[in-house]
Amino acid sequence: MGTFAREIYDVVGIGFGPSNLSLAIALDEYRTEGAGSSRSGPSAMFFERQSSFGWHRNMLLPTTTMQISFMKDLATFRNPVSPFGFVSYLHASGRLTQFVNNQDFFPTRQEFHQYLEWAAAGFTDRVRYGTEVTGIRLPAATEVGAAEPYVELEVRSGSTTRVVGARNVAISTGLVPRMPKGVQRDERVWHSSEFLDRYSRRNPSELNTVAVVGAGQSAAEITRYLYDELPHAQVYSIIPSYGYCVADDTPFANQIFDPGAVDTYFFGTDRSREAFWHYHRNTNYSVVDDEVIRDLYRRAYDEEVRGLDRLRFLNLSRVDQVKRAGDETRVSLLSLPTDETRELDVDAIVFATGYDAMEPTALLGDLDRHCLRDESGRYRVARDYRLITAPELSCGIYLQGGTEHTHGLTSSLLSNLAVRSGEIAESIIGRRAEPAAEPLLRPVVAGETG
Ligand code: FDA
Ligand code: NAP
Predict the structure, then answer these.
(1) What CATH number is attached to the domain comprising 160?
(2) Is the CB of residue 403 below 6 angstroms from any atom belonging to ligand 1?
(3) What pTM was computed for the model?
(4) For the residues of 284-346, what is the DSSP string, one character each?
(5) Could you read off the pLDDT of 52-74 as tens digits, one per residue?
(6) Distance 125 CA to ligand 2 centre (A)
(7) For a substitution probing ligand 1, which of 288, 414, 421 has the most ligand atoms within 8 Å of its CB?
(8) Dist CA 263 CA 256 (whole Å)
(9) What is the distance between the alpha carbons of residues 384 and 438, in angstroms, rounded to a whole number?
(10) Domain span holding position 142
(11) From the CB of residue 234, how many other CB atoms can be counted at a distance below 10 Å?
(12) Of 195, 218, 225, which is best to mutate to test ligand 2, by the most ligand atoms within 8 angstroms of its C-beta?
Protein backbone atom coordinates (compact mmCIF):
# COMPACT_ATOMS: atom_id res chain seq x y z
CA MET A 1 0.00 0.00 0.00
CA GLY A 2 1.62 3.28 -1.08
CA THR A 3 -0.54 5.51 1.10
CA PHE A 4 1.00 7.83 3.73
CA ALA A 5 -0.68 8.89 6.93
CA ARG A 6 -2.19 12.33 6.65
CA GLU A 7 -3.80 12.30 10.10
CA ILE A 8 -1.28 11.94 12.92
CA TYR A 9 -2.48 11.72 16.52
CA ASP A 10 -0.58 11.74 19.79
CA VAL A 11 -2.55 8.66 20.84
CA VAL A 12 -4.45 6.11 18.81
CA GLY A 13 -6.46 3.50 20.72
CA ILE A 14 -7.23 0.16 19.12
CA GLY A 15 -10.55 -1.04 20.52
CA PHE A 16 -12.97 1.02 22.57
CA GLY A 17 -14.05 -1.25 25.38
CA PRO A 18 -13.87 -0.20 29.04
CA SER A 19 -10.04 -0.05 29.03
CA ASN A 20 -9.61 2.47 26.25
CA LEU A 21 -12.76 4.32 27.29
CA SER A 22 -11.11 4.79 30.66
CA LEU A 23 -7.94 5.99 28.91
CA ALA A 24 -9.98 8.48 26.87
CA ILE A 25 -11.38 9.85 30.14
CA ALA A 26 -7.94 10.07 31.76
CA LEU A 27 -6.43 11.87 28.73
CA ASP A 28 -9.40 14.23 28.69
CA GLU A 29 -9.00 15.06 32.36
CA TYR A 30 -5.28 15.77 31.92
CA ARG A 31 -6.22 18.03 29.02
CA THR A 32 -8.73 19.90 31.16
CA GLU A 33 -6.20 20.23 33.98
CA GLY A 34 -3.74 21.73 31.49
CA ALA A 35 -6.27 24.21 30.10
CA GLY A 36 -5.11 27.78 30.55
CA SER A 37 -1.46 26.71 30.82
CA SER A 38 0.96 26.51 27.90
CA ARG A 39 0.43 22.72 27.92
CA SER A 40 -1.94 21.53 25.24
CA GLY A 41 -3.52 18.10 25.75
CA PRO A 42 -2.63 15.16 23.57
CA SER A 43 -4.78 14.56 20.51
CA ALA A 44 -6.45 11.15 20.58
CA MET A 45 -8.52 8.92 18.30
CA PHE A 46 -9.99 5.49 19.05
CA PHE A 47 -11.04 2.83 16.54
CA GLU A 48 -13.68 0.28 17.46
CA ARG A 49 -14.86 -2.49 15.17
CA GLN A 50 -18.34 -2.82 16.69
CA SER A 51 -20.94 -0.51 15.17
CA SER A 52 -21.69 1.07 18.55
CA PHE A 53 -20.40 0.78 22.09
CA GLY A 54 -20.89 -2.71 23.54
CA TRP A 55 -19.38 -4.59 26.48
CA HIS A 56 -19.74 -8.41 26.27
CA ARG A 57 -23.28 -7.89 24.95
CA ASN A 58 -23.77 -11.60 24.33
CA MET A 59 -23.47 -12.28 28.05
CA LEU A 60 -25.86 -9.57 29.24
CA LEU A 61 -28.11 -12.13 30.90
CA PRO A 62 -30.90 -10.88 33.15
CA THR A 63 -30.04 -10.64 36.87
CA THR A 64 -26.30 -11.23 36.37
CA THR A 65 -24.27 -8.92 38.52
CA MET A 66 -20.89 -7.24 38.37
CA GLN A 67 -17.94 -8.90 40.00
CA ILE A 68 -16.47 -5.65 41.26
CA SER A 69 -17.74 -2.86 43.41
CA PHE A 70 -19.47 0.01 41.55
CA MET A 71 -16.65 2.24 42.80
CA LYS A 72 -14.16 0.37 40.63
CA ASP A 73 -15.57 2.26 37.69
CA LEU A 74 -13.80 3.97 34.80
CA ALA A 75 -12.35 6.82 36.83
CA THR A 76 -13.03 6.99 40.58
CA PHE A 77 -9.88 5.25 41.86
CA ARG A 78 -7.78 7.70 39.84
CA ASN A 79 -9.96 10.75 40.31
CA PRO A 80 -12.79 10.48 42.83
CA VAL A 81 -14.35 13.71 41.52
CA SER A 82 -14.32 12.70 37.86
CA PRO A 83 -17.56 13.54 36.04
CA PHE A 84 -17.37 10.02 34.55
CA GLY A 85 -17.66 8.08 37.79
CA PHE A 86 -20.54 5.66 38.42
CA VAL A 87 -22.04 7.98 41.03
CA SER A 88 -22.22 10.82 38.45
CA TYR A 89 -24.01 8.42 36.12
CA LEU A 90 -26.51 7.50 38.84
CA HIS A 91 -27.07 11.16 39.55
CA ALA A 92 -27.59 11.94 35.86
CA SER A 93 -30.03 9.03 35.57
CA GLY A 94 -32.05 10.16 38.61
CA ARG A 95 -31.39 6.88 40.46
CA LEU A 96 -28.81 7.86 43.06
CA THR A 97 -31.23 7.69 45.99
CA GLN A 98 -32.71 4.36 44.93
CA PHE A 99 -29.27 2.90 44.35
CA VAL A 100 -28.24 3.78 47.88
CA ASN A 101 -31.50 2.41 49.29
CA ASN A 102 -30.78 -0.83 47.45
CA GLN A 103 -27.63 -1.25 49.62
CA ASP A 104 -25.72 -3.31 47.08
CA PHE A 105 -22.10 -2.77 46.04
CA PHE A 106 -22.59 -4.90 42.91
CA PRO A 107 -24.83 -3.47 40.17
CA THR A 108 -26.33 -5.73 37.53
CA ARG A 109 -24.28 -6.11 34.38
CA GLN A 110 -27.14 -4.44 32.51
CA GLU A 111 -26.93 -1.35 34.69
CA PHE A 112 -23.13 -1.25 34.39
CA HIS A 113 -23.50 -1.55 30.62
CA GLN A 114 -25.81 1.46 30.64
CA TYR A 115 -23.21 3.33 32.67
CA LEU A 116 -20.47 2.46 30.18
CA GLU A 117 -22.67 3.54 27.25
CA TRP A 118 -23.42 6.81 29.03
CA ALA A 119 -19.70 7.47 29.53
CA ALA A 120 -18.85 6.46 25.94
CA ALA A 121 -21.43 8.94 24.65
CA GLY A 122 -19.17 11.71 25.96
CA PHE A 123 -16.45 10.75 23.45
CA THR A 124 -18.25 10.32 20.12
CA ASP A 125 -15.95 12.94 18.56
CA ARG A 126 -12.91 10.76 19.38
CA VAL A 127 -14.21 7.31 18.43
CA ARG A 128 -14.81 5.82 15.02
CA TYR A 129 -17.20 2.87 15.39
CA GLY A 130 -17.40 0.26 12.65
CA THR A 131 -13.66 0.53 12.01
CA GLU A 132 -11.12 -2.21 12.50
CA VAL A 133 -7.39 -1.72 12.81
CA THR A 134 -5.80 -4.45 10.70
CA GLY A 135 -2.11 -3.71 11.18
CA ILE A 136 0.56 -1.40 12.56
CA ARG A 137 3.78 -0.65 10.72
CA LEU A 138 6.69 1.74 10.47
CA PRO A 139 6.25 4.47 7.85
CA ALA A 140 7.58 3.43 4.46
CA ALA A 141 10.26 6.12 4.46
CA THR A 142 12.01 4.82 7.58
CA GLU A 143 15.76 4.58 7.20
CA VAL A 144 17.40 1.66 8.92
CA GLY A 145 18.52 2.80 12.36
CA ALA A 146 16.52 6.05 12.36
CA ALA A 147 14.09 6.46 15.25
CA GLU A 148 10.65 7.17 13.79
CA PRO A 149 8.44 9.59 15.69
CA TYR A 150 5.28 7.80 14.64
CA VAL A 151 3.85 4.52 13.40
CA GLU A 152 1.15 3.97 10.83
CA LEU A 153 -2.07 2.05 11.41
CA GLU A 154 -4.19 0.50 8.69
CA VAL A 155 -7.82 1.15 9.49
CA ARG A 156 -10.54 -0.72 7.64
CA SER A 157 -14.10 0.51 7.41
CA GLY A 158 -16.35 -1.53 5.12
CA SER A 159 -14.44 -1.95 1.89
CA THR A 160 -12.13 1.03 2.38
CA THR A 161 -8.81 1.12 4.17
CA ARG A 162 -7.06 4.27 5.26
CA VAL A 163 -3.84 4.96 7.09
CA VAL A 164 -3.48 7.07 10.22
CA GLY A 165 -0.33 7.99 12.11
CA ALA A 166 0.18 7.65 15.86
CA ARG A 167 2.93 8.80 18.17
CA ASN A 168 1.54 6.39 20.76
CA VAL A 169 -0.71 3.38 20.37
CA ALA A 170 -2.85 1.83 23.12
CA ILE A 171 -3.77 -1.72 22.16
CA SER A 172 -6.86 -2.89 24.00
CA THR A 173 -8.54 -5.51 21.85
CA GLY A 174 -9.80 -7.73 24.68
CA LEU A 175 -9.80 -11.41 25.58
CA VAL A 176 -9.81 -14.10 22.90
CA PRO A 177 -12.52 -16.83 23.15
CA ARG A 178 -11.02 -20.30 23.75
CA MET A 179 -12.49 -23.56 22.39
CA PRO A 180 -11.18 -27.07 23.13
CA LYS A 181 -8.67 -28.18 20.52
CA GLY A 182 -10.32 -29.45 17.34
CA VAL A 183 -13.83 -28.18 18.15
CA GLN A 184 -15.23 -25.80 15.54
CA ARG A 185 -17.96 -23.27 16.21
CA ASP A 186 -21.11 -23.16 14.08
CA GLU A 187 -24.86 -22.56 14.38
CA ARG A 188 -25.23 -25.32 17.01
CA VAL A 189 -21.81 -25.19 18.63
CA TRP A 190 -21.32 -21.86 20.37
CA HIS A 191 -18.77 -20.14 22.56
CA SER A 192 -20.21 -18.24 25.53
CA SER A 193 -18.93 -14.95 24.04
CA GLU A 194 -21.54 -15.30 21.24
CA PHE A 195 -24.26 -16.84 23.39
CA LEU A 196 -27.24 -14.43 23.23
CA ASP A 197 -26.75 -13.73 19.54
CA ARG A 198 -26.64 -17.45 18.63
CA TYR A 199 -29.48 -18.32 21.00
CA SER A 200 -31.75 -15.58 19.60
CA ARG A 201 -31.42 -17.11 16.13
CA ARG A 202 -32.82 -20.49 17.20
CA ASN A 203 -36.43 -21.44 17.74
CA PRO A 204 -36.55 -22.28 21.48
CA SER A 205 -39.11 -25.05 20.88
CA GLU A 206 -36.50 -26.89 18.80
CA LEU A 207 -33.98 -26.84 21.61
CA ASN A 208 -34.96 -29.95 23.54
CA THR A 209 -31.53 -31.05 24.71
CA VAL A 210 -28.83 -28.48 25.40
CA ALA A 211 -25.45 -28.70 27.09
CA VAL A 212 -23.13 -26.18 28.69
CA VAL A 213 -19.43 -26.95 29.06
CA GLY A 214 -17.27 -25.52 31.85
CA ALA A 215 -17.33 -24.73 35.55
CA GLY A 216 -16.65 -20.99 35.47
CA GLN A 217 -18.93 -17.99 35.92
CA SER A 218 -20.05 -17.97 32.28
CA ALA A 219 -21.01 -21.65 32.38
CA ALA A 220 -23.02 -21.33 35.59
CA GLU A 221 -24.86 -18.22 34.39
CA ILE A 222 -25.72 -19.80 31.02
CA THR A 223 -26.86 -23.08 32.62
CA ARG A 224 -29.20 -21.16 34.89
CA TYR A 225 -30.48 -19.08 31.99
CA LEU A 226 -31.18 -22.06 29.71
CA TYR A 227 -32.88 -23.99 32.51
CA ASP A 228 -35.19 -21.03 33.16
CA GLU A 229 -35.80 -20.08 29.51
CA LEU A 230 -36.42 -23.59 28.17
CA PRO A 231 -38.88 -25.19 30.60
CA HIS A 232 -39.36 -28.15 28.24
CA ALA A 233 -35.65 -28.88 27.72
CA GLN A 234 -33.13 -31.25 29.20
CA VAL A 235 -30.14 -29.17 30.32
CA TYR A 236 -26.73 -30.79 30.83
CA SER A 237 -23.92 -29.04 32.62
CA ILE A 238 -20.59 -30.67 31.81
CA ILE A 239 -18.09 -29.76 34.48
CA PRO A 240 -14.49 -30.93 34.89
CA SER A 241 -14.56 -30.58 38.70
CA TYR A 242 -16.68 -32.47 41.23
CA GLY A 243 -18.81 -29.35 41.70
CA TYR A 244 -18.60 -25.62 40.97
CA CYS A 245 -15.94 -23.88 43.09
CA VAL A 246 -16.65 -20.56 44.72
CA ALA A 247 -14.94 -17.34 43.62
CA ASP A 248 -12.99 -16.00 46.55
CA ASP A 249 -14.05 -12.38 46.94
CA THR A 250 -13.35 -12.14 50.65
CA PRO A 251 -11.59 -8.96 51.81
CA PHE A 252 -8.03 -10.20 52.39
CA ALA A 253 -7.86 -12.11 49.12
CA ASN A 254 -9.45 -9.18 47.31
CA GLN A 255 -6.35 -7.12 48.10
CA ILE A 256 -4.65 -8.70 45.09
CA PHE A 257 -6.82 -6.41 42.96
CA ASP A 258 -5.61 -3.29 44.79
CA PRO A 259 -3.58 -0.84 42.70
CA GLY A 260 -0.61 -1.43 45.04
CA ALA A 261 -0.58 -5.15 44.21
CA VAL A 262 0.61 -4.29 40.70
CA ASP A 263 3.90 -2.95 42.10
CA THR A 264 4.32 -5.98 44.35
CA TYR A 265 3.83 -8.24 41.36
CA PHE A 266 5.85 -6.21 38.87
CA PHE A 267 8.87 -5.61 41.10
CA GLY A 268 8.66 -9.01 42.81
CA THR A 269 10.61 -12.19 42.18
CA ASP A 270 9.53 -15.19 40.15
CA ARG A 271 8.78 -16.86 43.47
CA SER A 272 6.49 -14.09 44.69
CA ARG A 273 4.67 -13.96 41.34
CA GLU A 274 4.20 -17.72 41.49
CA ALA A 275 2.71 -17.30 44.98
CA PHE A 276 0.10 -14.88 43.58
CA TRP A 277 -1.08 -17.48 41.09
CA HIS A 278 -0.81 -20.42 43.43
CA TYR A 279 -2.86 -18.82 46.19
CA HIS A 280 -5.21 -16.51 44.30
CA ARG A 281 -6.12 -17.96 40.92
CA ASN A 282 -9.45 -18.87 42.54
CA THR A 283 -10.42 -15.22 42.75
CA ASN A 284 -11.08 -15.23 39.02
CA TYR A 285 -10.56 -18.38 36.97
CA SER A 286 -12.79 -21.49 36.83
CA VAL A 287 -14.83 -20.19 39.76
CA VAL A 288 -18.39 -19.00 40.31
CA ASP A 289 -20.05 -16.44 42.58
CA ASP A 290 -21.48 -17.98 45.71
CA GLU A 291 -24.98 -16.65 44.98
CA VAL A 292 -25.11 -18.26 41.50
CA ILE A 293 -23.91 -21.62 42.87
CA ARG A 294 -26.62 -21.61 45.53
CA ASP A 295 -29.23 -20.54 42.98
CA LEU A 296 -28.37 -23.49 40.74
CA TYR A 297 -28.25 -25.98 43.60
CA ARG A 298 -31.67 -24.80 44.73
CA ARG A 299 -33.05 -25.63 41.27
CA ALA A 300 -31.39 -29.06 41.27
CA TYR A 301 -32.76 -29.82 44.73
CA ASP A 302 -36.24 -28.68 43.76
CA GLU A 303 -36.08 -31.13 40.85
CA GLU A 304 -35.24 -33.94 43.28
CA VAL A 305 -38.22 -33.03 45.42
CA ARG A 306 -40.50 -33.05 42.39
CA GLY A 307 -39.00 -36.27 41.02
CA LEU A 308 -37.67 -34.58 37.88
CA ASP A 309 -34.32 -34.86 36.17
CA ARG A 310 -34.30 -31.96 33.75
CA LEU A 311 -31.12 -30.34 35.08
CA ARG A 312 -28.21 -32.75 35.10
CA PHE A 313 -24.64 -32.13 36.18
CA LEU A 314 -22.14 -34.42 34.45
CA ASN A 315 -19.22 -33.87 36.77
CA LEU A 316 -15.57 -34.89 36.49
CA SER A 317 -16.06 -34.82 32.72
CA ARG A 318 -14.37 -32.99 29.89
CA VAL A 319 -15.53 -32.60 26.32
CA ASP A 320 -13.15 -34.36 24.02
CA GLN A 321 -14.68 -33.72 20.62
CA VAL A 322 -17.86 -32.78 18.79
CA LYS A 323 -19.11 -34.49 15.63
CA ARG A 324 -21.51 -32.55 13.45
CA ALA A 325 -23.68 -33.80 10.60
CA GLY A 326 -26.67 -31.76 9.44
CA ASP A 327 -28.87 -31.14 12.47
CA GLU A 328 -27.05 -33.73 14.53
CA THR A 329 -24.51 -32.80 17.15
CA ARG A 330 -22.76 -35.63 18.99
CA VAL A 331 -20.51 -34.75 21.90
CA SER A 332 -17.78 -37.08 23.22
CA LEU A 333 -17.29 -36.80 26.97
CA LEU A 334 -14.26 -38.13 28.74
CA SER A 335 -15.05 -39.31 32.26
CA LEU A 336 -12.08 -38.39 34.44
CA PRO A 337 -12.56 -41.16 37.08
CA THR A 338 -12.92 -44.03 34.57
CA ASP A 339 -11.09 -42.65 31.55
CA GLU A 340 -14.04 -43.89 29.50
CA THR A 341 -15.72 -41.91 26.75
CA ARG A 342 -19.47 -41.57 26.41
CA GLU A 343 -21.53 -39.80 23.80
CA LEU A 344 -24.29 -37.27 24.17
CA ASP A 345 -26.61 -35.98 21.41
CA VAL A 346 -27.66 -32.37 21.78
CA ASP A 347 -29.55 -29.72 19.81
CA ALA A 348 -27.05 -27.05 20.83
CA ILE A 349 -23.95 -26.88 23.00
CA VAL A 350 -22.35 -23.84 24.62
CA PHE A 351 -18.64 -23.87 25.31
CA ALA A 352 -18.11 -21.64 28.33
CA THR A 353 -14.50 -22.73 28.22
CA GLY A 354 -12.92 -19.38 28.90
CA TYR A 355 -10.58 -17.04 27.09
CA ASP A 356 -6.95 -16.61 26.13
CA ALA A 357 -5.22 -13.37 27.01
CA MET A 358 -5.08 -10.48 24.56
CA GLU A 359 -2.46 -11.26 21.92
CA PRO A 360 -1.18 -8.29 19.90
CA THR A 361 1.31 -10.19 17.72
CA ALA A 362 -0.88 -10.35 14.61
CA LEU A 363 -1.65 -6.62 14.82
CA LEU A 364 2.02 -5.75 15.28
CA GLY A 365 2.98 -7.70 12.17
CA ASP A 366 6.48 -6.81 11.07
CA LEU A 367 6.76 -4.34 13.95
CA ASP A 368 6.85 -7.31 16.29
CA ARG A 369 10.52 -7.93 15.59
CA HIS A 370 11.33 -4.57 17.25
CA CYS A 371 9.57 -5.66 20.46
CA LEU A 372 11.74 -7.37 23.04
CA ARG A 373 10.77 -10.68 24.62
CA ASP A 374 11.85 -12.48 27.79
CA GLU A 375 13.43 -15.93 27.96
CA SER A 376 9.99 -17.55 27.87
CA GLY A 377 9.13 -15.69 24.67
CA ARG A 378 6.69 -13.29 26.34
CA TYR A 379 6.69 -9.55 25.64
CA ARG A 380 8.81 -7.43 27.90
CA VAL A 381 6.64 -4.67 29.28
CA ALA A 382 7.68 -1.66 31.39
CA ARG A 383 5.83 -0.63 34.55
CA ASP A 384 3.89 1.99 32.54
CA TYR A 385 2.46 -0.87 30.37
CA ARG A 386 4.66 0.14 27.45
CA LEU A 387 6.16 -2.58 25.28
CA ILE A 388 9.94 -2.50 25.57
CA THR A 389 11.22 -2.05 22.06
CA ALA A 390 14.50 -1.71 20.19
CA PRO A 391 15.73 1.90 19.90
CA GLU A 392 14.59 2.37 16.30
CA LEU A 393 10.99 2.20 17.53
CA SER A 394 10.67 5.31 19.65
CA CYS A 395 6.84 5.48 19.68
CA GLY A 396 5.01 4.22 22.72
CA ILE A 397 3.06 1.01 22.25
CA TYR A 398 0.99 0.43 25.37
CA LEU A 399 -0.92 -2.73 26.28
CA GLN A 400 -4.21 -2.76 28.15
CA GLY A 401 -4.49 -6.53 28.56
CA GLY A 402 -2.01 -9.31 27.86
CA THR A 403 0.23 -8.28 30.76
CA GLU A 404 -0.64 -10.90 33.37
CA HIS A 405 2.95 -12.16 33.30
CA THR A 406 4.32 -8.73 34.21
CA HIS A 407 1.55 -6.85 36.04
CA GLY A 408 -0.58 -9.63 37.52
CA LEU A 409 -4.20 -10.66 37.71
CA THR A 410 -5.80 -7.27 37.08
CA SER A 411 -4.41 -7.20 33.54
CA SER A 412 -7.65 -8.30 31.87
CA LEU A 413 -10.07 -7.08 34.53
CA LEU A 414 -11.89 -3.89 35.40
CA SER A 415 -10.57 -3.67 38.98
CA ASN A 416 -7.55 -1.49 38.29
CA LEU A 417 -8.76 0.14 35.09
CA ALA A 418 -8.96 3.71 36.32
CA VAL A 419 -5.49 3.70 37.86
CA ARG A 420 -3.90 1.82 34.95
CA SER A 421 -5.32 4.24 32.37
CA GLY A 422 -4.11 7.15 34.49
CA GLU A 423 -0.61 5.66 34.56
CA ILE A 424 -0.63 5.21 30.78
CA ALA A 425 -1.92 8.76 30.22
CA GLU A 426 0.76 10.14 32.55
CA SER A 427 3.45 8.17 30.74
CA ILE A 428 2.31 9.46 27.35
CA ILE A 429 2.18 13.03 28.59
CA GLY A 430 5.49 12.70 30.44
CA ARG A 431 7.23 11.33 27.35
CA ARG A 432 5.93 14.26 25.30
CA ALA A 433 7.82 16.54 27.69
CA GLU A 434 10.88 14.30 27.85
CA PRO A 435 10.88 12.02 24.81
CA ALA A 436 14.03 10.16 25.89
CA ALA A 437 12.67 9.19 29.33
CA GLU A 438 13.76 5.67 30.25
CA PRO A 439 11.05 3.10 30.86
CA LEU A 440 10.75 1.82 34.43
CA LEU A 441 11.89 -1.79 34.38
CA ARG A 442 11.97 -4.26 37.18
CA PRO A 443 15.44 -5.14 38.48
CA VAL A 444 16.64 -8.58 37.49
CA VAL A 445 17.38 -10.64 40.58
CA ALA A 446 20.43 -12.91 40.41
CA GLY A 447 19.52 -16.40 39.23
CA GLU A 448 16.12 -15.30 37.96
CA THR A 449 14.82 -15.83 34.46
CA GLY A 450 12.71 -13.42 32.44
P1 FDA B 1 -13.06 -5.56 25.86
O2 FDA B 1 -13.02 -6.94 25.31
O3 FDA B 1 -14.20 -5.20 26.70
O4 FDA B 1 -12.99 -4.52 24.64
C5 FDA B 1 -12.15 -4.69 23.54
C6 FDA B 1 -12.76 -3.97 22.36
O7 FDA B 1 -11.84 -3.96 21.27
C8 FDA B 1 -14.03 -4.65 21.84
O9 FDA B 1 -15.08 -3.72 21.85
C10 FDA B 1 -13.66 -5.11 20.43
O11 FDA B 1 -14.74 -5.02 19.52
C12 FDA B 1 -12.55 -4.12 20.05
N13 FDA B 1 -11.60 -4.61 19.05
C14 FDA B 1 -10.93 -5.80 19.07
N15 FDA B 1 -10.06 -5.85 18.03
C16 FDA B 1 -10.16 -4.67 17.35
C17 FDA B 1 -9.50 -4.14 16.21
N18 FDA B 1 -8.54 -4.82 15.56
N19 FDA B 1 -9.86 -2.91 15.77
C20 FDA B 1 -10.84 -2.20 16.42
N21 FDA B 1 -11.49 -2.67 17.52
C22 FDA B 1 -11.15 -3.88 17.98
N23 FDA B 1 -13.95 -8.08 34.82
C24 FDA B 1 -14.16 -7.48 36.02
O25 FDA B 1 -13.21 -6.95 36.59
N26 FDA B 1 -15.40 -7.43 36.56
C27 FDA B 1 -16.48 -7.97 35.95
O28 FDA B 1 -17.59 -7.92 36.46
C29 FDA B 1 -16.27 -8.63 34.68
N30 FDA B 1 -17.32 -9.18 34.02
C31 FDA B 1 -17.09 -9.87 32.85
C32 FDA B 1 -18.15 -10.50 32.21
C33 FDA B 1 -17.93 -11.27 31.08
C34 FDA B 1 -19.09 -11.98 30.42
C35 FDA B 1 -16.61 -11.39 30.56
C36 FDA B 1 -16.35 -12.23 29.34
C37 FDA B 1 -15.56 -10.73 31.17
C38 FDA B 1 -15.79 -9.97 32.31
N39 FDA B 1 -14.75 -9.31 32.94
C40 FDA B 1 -14.98 -8.67 34.14
C41 FDA B 1 -13.39 -9.28 32.33
C42 FDA B 1 -13.28 -8.37 31.07
O43 FDA B 1 -12.09 -8.62 30.42
C44 FDA B 1 -13.37 -6.91 31.37
O45 FDA B 1 -14.63 -6.70 31.93
C46 FDA B 1 -13.32 -5.91 30.20
O47 FDA B 1 -14.10 -6.36 29.11
C48 FDA B 1 -11.94 -5.51 29.77
O49 FDA B 1 -12.09 -4.38 28.92
P50 FDA B 1 -11.24 -4.18 27.61
O51 FDA B 1 -11.60 -2.84 27.06
O52 FDA B 1 -9.81 -4.43 27.93
O53 FDA B 1 -11.68 -5.35 26.62
P1 NAP C 1 -13.13 -19.54 32.97
O2 NAP C 1 -13.25 -18.98 34.32
O3 NAP C 1 -11.78 -19.60 32.36
O4 NAP C 1 -13.78 -21.00 33.00
C5 NAP C 1 -13.66 -21.90 31.91
C6 NAP C 1 -14.17 -23.27 32.37
O7 NAP C 1 -14.22 -24.17 31.27
C8 NAP C 1 -13.25 -23.92 33.42
O9 NAP C 1 -14.04 -24.56 34.39
C10 NAP C 1 -12.49 -24.95 32.58
O11 NAP C 1 -11.99 -26.02 33.34
C12 NAP C 1 -13.62 -25.40 31.67
N13 NAP C 1 -13.18 -26.15 30.49
C14 NAP C 1 -12.25 -25.80 29.59
N15 NAP C 1 -12.16 -26.76 28.63
C16 NAP C 1 -13.06 -27.73 28.96
C17 NAP C 1 -13.43 -28.97 28.38
N18 NAP C 1 -12.88 -29.41 27.25
N19 NAP C 1 -14.39 -29.72 28.98
C20 NAP C 1 -14.98 -29.30 30.14
N21 NAP C 1 -14.67 -28.12 30.73
C22 NAP C 1 -13.71 -27.35 30.15
O23 NAP C 1 -14.07 -18.73 31.90
P24 NAP C 1 -15.39 -17.84 32.14
O25 NAP C 1 -16.33 -18.52 33.04
O26 NAP C 1 -15.84 -17.43 30.79
O27 NAP C 1 -14.82 -16.54 32.90
C28 NAP C 1 -13.87 -15.70 32.22
C29 NAP C 1 -13.84 -14.30 32.87
O30 NAP C 1 -15.09 -13.65 32.67
C31 NAP C 1 -13.61 -14.35 34.38
O32 NAP C 1 -12.87 -13.20 34.73
C33 NAP C 1 -15.02 -14.21 34.91
O34 NAP C 1 -15.05 -13.67 36.21
C35 NAP C 1 -15.63 -13.25 33.91
N36 NAP C 1 -17.11 -13.34 33.87
C37 NAP C 1 -17.82 -12.44 34.61
C38 NAP C 1 -19.19 -12.48 34.62
C39 NAP C 1 -19.95 -11.44 35.42
O40 NAP C 1 -19.41 -10.39 35.67
N41 NAP C 1 -21.17 -11.69 35.84
C42 NAP C 1 -19.87 -13.42 33.85
C43 NAP C 1 -19.13 -14.33 33.11
C44 NAP C 1 -17.73 -14.27 33.11
P45 NAP C 1 -10.39 -26.04 33.71
O46 NAP C 1 -10.20 -24.94 34.65
O47 NAP C 1 -10.20 -27.39 34.30
O48 NAP C 1 -9.70 -25.87 32.39
Answers:
(1) 3.50.50.60
(2) no
(3) 0.95
(4) TTT-B-HHHHHHHHHHHHHHHHHT---EEEE-SEEEEEEEEETTEEEEEEEETTT--EEEEEE
(5) 999 999 999 999 999 999 999 99
(6) 36
(7) 414
(8) 11
(9) 11
(10) 2-175+357-433
(11) 17
(12) 218
